[in-house]
Specification:
about 200 residues, 8 strands, binds nicotinamide-adenine-dinucleotide, alpha/beta, 6-stranded parallel beta sheet, 5 helices
Length: about 200
Amino acid sequence: MNVDNKVIAITGGARGLGLAMAELLGSKGARVALLDTHRDTLDKAVASLSERGIQAKGFVVDVSDEASVIKGFAAIKGELGPVSGCVNNAGITDDAMLVKAKEGEIEKRMSLSCWQRVIDVNLTGAFLCGREAATQMIEANHAGVIVNISSISKAGNMGQSNYAAAKAGIHALSVTWGKELARYNIRAATVAPVSCPPR
Ligand SMILES: NC(=O)c1ccc[n+]([C@@H]2O[C@H](COP(=O)([O-])OP(=O)(O)OC[C@H]3O[C@@H](n4cnc5c(N)ncnc54)[C@H](O)[C@@H]3O)[C@@H](O)[C@H]2O)c1
């Protein structure tokens, strides 16, 4: 995809991999919309991108909250235009063993809230943002790409029932969206990074 002058939304774009992707896409001419939870970190990210001549705007959005996502994408459309790309990158971990025991005594179990928090951000967040992005692409009648950021933990990882299930789930979303959205010239794909050093 030629990203020049295209609007690309990047969730969790205020730091880490999201910010790195914003730098790369912005250096190729994309106008990047960073979605993240805190205004101050968004402002810093936008300032660092602007210094490099990249057109960027920050939007305070909690990807796990439907109303927040709908409002955020409406603001992106109003301020930058409809998105041509969406990178579902926002992600958290909250590791715990499913059940931990010592000498037959149960010591700890993964709580439902711990499970739910990670599913809400990493899986439901991708669903909500992917849905808004696809809606804007179809309404604008232009081609687009949705990229879901997964992890090698999708294959299962100790202490990560919640994270592994969410990352496996977003692989299934990409395949499903590829099948559903190809007729609108929208592609969907997954990237599963192995690891990256802290930025
Ligand atoms: N860094 C790695 O080594 C690695 C490896 C495999 C997969 N990944 C995946 O890549 C993605 C980015 O990883 P990272 O290391 O850059 O993470 P990070 O923690 O540095 O950044 C994640 C960003 O997401 C934001 N975020 C968290 N919850 C949010 C929410 N509810 N709504 C909006 N934004 C939210 C955070 O504020 C943060 O800016 C994640 O999905 C992660 O699972 C990372």
